[in-house]
Amino acid sequence: MTTEPAASARPQTAIDAVADAYTDTLIRLNPSFATVLGVPGHETEFQDFSPAGIEGFMAAAREALSALDGLEPADDVDAVTLDAMRERLGLQLEIHESGWDAAELNNIESPAQNIRSIFDLMSTDTTEHWEHIAGRAHSVPGAIDGYIESLRSAKEQGRVSASRQVAIVIEQATKYAAGDGFFAKMAAGAKTTEGPLSSELQATLDDGAAAARAAYVKLADFLSAELLPVAPAKDSVGRERYALASRAFLGATVDLDETYAWGVQELERLIAEQERVANEIRPGASVEEAKEILNSDPARQLKGTDALKAWMQDLSDKAVADLAGVHFEIPDIMKTLECLIAPTDEGGIYYTGPSDDFSRPGRMWWSVPAGEDTFTTWAETTTVFHEGVPGHHLQIATAIYRRELLNKWRRNVCWTSGHGEGWALYAEKLMQELGYLKDPGDHMGMLDMQRMRAARVVFDIGVHLELEVPERWGSGTWTPDKGYDFLKENLAISEGQLNFEFARYLGWPGQAPSYKVGQRLWEQIRAELEARPGFDLKAFHTKALNIGSVGLDTLKRALLQ
Are 441 and 378 in contact (CB under 8 A)? Predict the structure, then answer.
């Protein structure tokens, strides 16, 4: 059963016009964003990463907020747009005032990675596609130069990321620049669906790859010579900066101390639940023993990335087929979800949304750490639901699809981690509720992922605010070293993934807790609505997803009004 949108297209309102104009400005200022959306005409460019470029984004935010002043919502959709834009853009300006936007540098989500990773989304089928790639490769030096200018400016203002993050990015940049690194491999393996590139285009691509490699060498040298010597050894960012980051990732203001205490309690609850499921796997087994049983089961093992990719795709396709029209509205155009192995080995699993016209489908990527080639299905079944359906793919693709209801900013720009990641965790729990994790192994895997997210609340808030360590996990106040041992006990992942995650939480404050805290806020909203007469779960999901990824305070106001 396929359900197309029932609502007719809304006439554009004055508030929609402001939102759409702001989106057009963002596409102009950020060509990589145009690539993400599949908007043609900017394929060889990068944004200006310099202080002047950053100020251009701030000027656009101020202009949009000014244009919204005095406008009255024409309907409920407008009311949400107004609420969301004022919250998101106003916070963006607050962060800019703090000066930390120019200092952005960490192991996962900063210009150092994003300049490289946009190539992952560029098509490679035709000669024109490779001309675009070659052109963008030639533009990497300018992007890196602007980024260096911002980092240097922030350094002069006393804002430098912790030395741990600087050292990791030096290593990443050096790998990108290597003779066997990303850009060299990209150029060496270039071909269209019809065969090799022309000698002229290959030479242009080779030159572009060499220029990109040289730019990353320059970045690594700058970080080594200028940033690393002055980078603080301390990883914790303190309460003031953390509170701002928490708001950015949640779109909500929470009591950090209460949230930390809740995280401790939630972790204890999940461990107790794992102990109960371990007893189902084998009476009297501990959680660790139950996992050993699951890991040694040949029926639950995958060998090699090809097998991993095929298994991901099969499970994802089944979830789409089962849920469409029964528990969720999933139009045909949204049913394609590609599962891929990422071209990097940095660790992590992530989703990239479809292009605005769905010519590029949503994609689930698995970045496999070097040397790892054995995977266990019991541990990862819930991850496929998290990244795919009913998780990120359903959420993001729905917002993009609902063009008859939502303006361009609501569909393509507004993304709040607590909303998005909170929904994906809610989706994992929902799949258990719907009976898709009845197998004790798959249930244990879901609990492992939930436990990991609860542990991240404790670690992230505890370490960055230097709070007291719960008695079960030690004594004194949190330090990164204590936190690493704590994560090792609570995150059932490989050593390579653990090291990546540890650095990620330290370098990206507030992001990791947004998953579990976001889930908590989603569940609180649902619980309030369930207490009302006539609650319908599918209708709740449809209405919530049609709103798009707004901040969680905005979502709560929209759903509980």
Answer: yes
